[in-house]
Specification:
- With about 575 residues, this protein is mainly alpha-helical.
- Helices cover about 55% and strands about 10% of the residues.
- The strands form 4 sheets. Strands 1-2-3 form a 3-stranded antiparallel beta sheet, with no helix packed on it. The chain has a 3-stranded parallel beta sheet with strand order 6-9-10, covered by helices on one side.
- It is elongated, with a radius of gyration of 56 Å.
Length: about 575
């Protein structure tokens, strides 16, 4: 199989060839849920790897021991944790079993390897969980609806129909009262009709008087503008007369326009030597004094007109003020006449309208509620049917769990092989008289020195980093060996990165020799069909006469004869 993925992409391209020679290429998400892309239940890369390896897609509880916890997939990454010992930290963790959140998936993987989970058991548990959830939701909904209906006395559809009929009769009565109240109002308010007519007349008169006042304002403004123009003209005439008196004896020697000398002989007799026009006799000239007299008389007339208009405007304003006061007084009289009657009538009308709205809303509500008793009966019937399904699923789950009882035998064999690995690799402090016990709740193996439970210790209390590393590796070897012997579904791949971390060959040569001797022994027998990859700082080769297909290579950066695994990679 070829798996390709661009950096940062959430989709991988997977290609392989089926047994019948047909090439297959898929674009599949690397993680997460979504639509099925292959087979009946493959939605991501993890599902595809498990399916092509021949393993079932297992669903487990998100929180172990909580029956209400949702079911989630057990991914290929969770299984790979027992096949690739990367040792990222200085003191490697024991398959995440000491981390509260991640430990759940590791325990689920071990239970799956041992046989506590099967594809059929996973399917049955998922169906059981869904059926129980559906039954609980239907029963709770039915009980809530039934309690609501019983609280208001709506136990059956016939009772609700009776309530709707009573509400209809009540609605007809209230609407009739509301119509009668409106008719009475129009009949009983005739005593204010005369005042209403007077109010309309006064409104019309008030509009006419306001228009008259506006006309007076316009006339006053026009006469003020005319007076200003006449006074400006009076000042201009006076200035012209004074200029003429000052310039009466003056003569021009040069033209005021072009500046050339003026010739006196060019003007005919009786004409102006400058403009060449005939000079009129003094009797025909315009007299500034007469013009000023006329302007004064005109201004006097305008002043008198302004005073008359001001008096008329004052009278018009007083007339409008009096008319507004009379209209306001009549408005108050009409309001006082109607206030008592209208207040009582409005209160009755609002009460009747509110009652009509409430009755109509109640009728609509009852029509919706009328279908509820039947729905309650139907939901309870469906919940009863689900009880039969749940009982059947419980029985099938128990039968499947009984069939998987060999898991206890697998855990016992795992403990025995783990103790053998610890002794064979000469882990300090472990001897033939010791006992290995795997806690079925935490799945953490404990060493009981000479069978003494009170002196028990585990990976987390093993002490040195080198001892912890051997502890982890021995458990992984024991798991893969037990799987090969018992036919457990553990992938036949084991990658160990730096198995002798914190253990140097020059200081602990017996530990190094014992580890590789045991590794090659089980690789030649029980793990002969396994692929084992070791990354270490020192090379310890197996016996050349053995059946192992052994290959080694030295990887050094920037060394073309011994290139690294990824030739183009440079970094930490």
């Amino acid at each position: 199989m070829l798996i390709e993925r661009a950096k940062g992409e959430g989709v991988a391209k997977v290609s392989w060839i089926e047994d019948d020679g047909e090439p297959i290429t898929l674009l599949i998400r690397t993680k997460g849920d979504g639509p099925v892309v292959y087979g009946d239940d493959v939605v991501n890369l993890s599902d595809l790897l498990l399916r092509l390896l021949g393993y079932p897609i297992i669903r487990v509880r998100k929180r172990t021991g909580d029956d209400d916890s949702p079911m989630v997939r057990l991914s290929f990454r969770d299984l790979l944790k027992f096949c690739y010992l990367e040792q990222e930290q200085l003191d490697s963790s024991f398959f995440r079993l000491g981390q509260p959140i991640l430990a759940e998936k590791s325990k689920d993987a071990l239970n799956f390897f041992a046989g506590y989970y099967s594809e059929r058991l996973s399917t049955l548990q998922a169906e059981f969980d869904q059926a129980r959830t559906d039954q609980r939701s239907k029963t709770e909904a039915a009980e809530r609806i039934r309690g609501f209906l019983a609280q208001f006395g709506f136990a059956s559809a016939s009772q609700i129909d009776a309530e709707i009929a009573k509400d209809h009769f009540r609605l007809v009565d209230v609407q009739a009262d509301l119509t009668a109240s409106a008719d009475d109002f129009f009949r009983q308010t005739h005593f204010v009709d005369e005042q209403r007519v007077r109010l309309r007349q006064m409104s019309n008169q008030l509009n006419a008087e306001q228009e008259t006042l506006e006309d007076l304002d316009r006339r006053i403004e026009e006469q003020r503008e005319l007076r200003a123009e006449l006074m400006s003209m009076k000042f201009k005439v006076a200035r012209a007369d004074r200029a003429r008196s000052v310039l009466s004896g003056s003569a021009f020697e040069n033209c005021p326009q072009c500046g050339q000398p003026l010739a006196a002989h060019r003007a005919p007799e009786g004409s102006c030597y400058l403009c060449l026009q005939v000079v009129l006799p003094s009797s025909e000239e315009i007299n500034p004094a007469s013009i000023s007299s006329d302007l004064e008389a005109r201004l006097t007339d305008i002043e008198q007109a302004l005073r008359r208009h001001a008096i008329a405007r004052k009278r018009q304003t007083e007339r409008i003020v009096k008319l507004v006061a009379d209209k306001d007084r009549l408005d108050r009289e009409v309001s006082e006449l109607l206030s008592g009657y209208e207040t009582d009538r409005a209160a009755r009308s609002r009460q009747a309208e509110r009652e009509v709205a409430e009755i109509e809303e109640r009728i609509r509500f009852l029509n919706r509620v009328k279908a509820m008793p039947g729905a309650v009966t139907e939901m309870l019937a469906e919940a009863d049917k689900l009880s039969e399904v749940i009982t059947r699923l419980e029985r099938e789950i128990r039968q499947e769990q009984m069939r998987l009882s060999k898991a206890d035998e697998n855990f016992s064999a795992l403990g025995a092989n783990f103790l053998e690995a610890l002794i064979a690799t000469r882990v300090p402090g472990v001897g033939p008289t010791d006992t290995v016990n795997i806690n079925r709740r935490t799945l953490i193996p404990e060493i009981w020195p000479e069978g003494d439970e009170t002196a028990a210790y585990s990976f987390f209390t093993a002490g040195s980093g080198g001892k912890k590393t051997l502890f982890t590796i021995c458990f992984a070897l024991a798991l893969h060996r037990t799987a090969a012997i018992k036919g457990m579904p553990v992938p036949s791949l084991l990658i160990i990165d730096t198995p002798l971390k914190n253990i140097t060959p020059d200081i602990n040569p017996e530990l190094v020799a014992a580890f590789y001797k045991y590794l090659y022994r089980i690789a030649e027998t029980d793990l002969l069909n396994h692929q084992i990859v070791i990354i270490d700082q020192a090379l310890v080769e197996p016996s050349p006469e053995g059946p192992l297909d052994f290959v080694d290579r030295l990887m050094t950066e920037d060394d073309p004869e011994h290139p690294p695994l990824i030739s183009y990679y440079h970094g930490p």
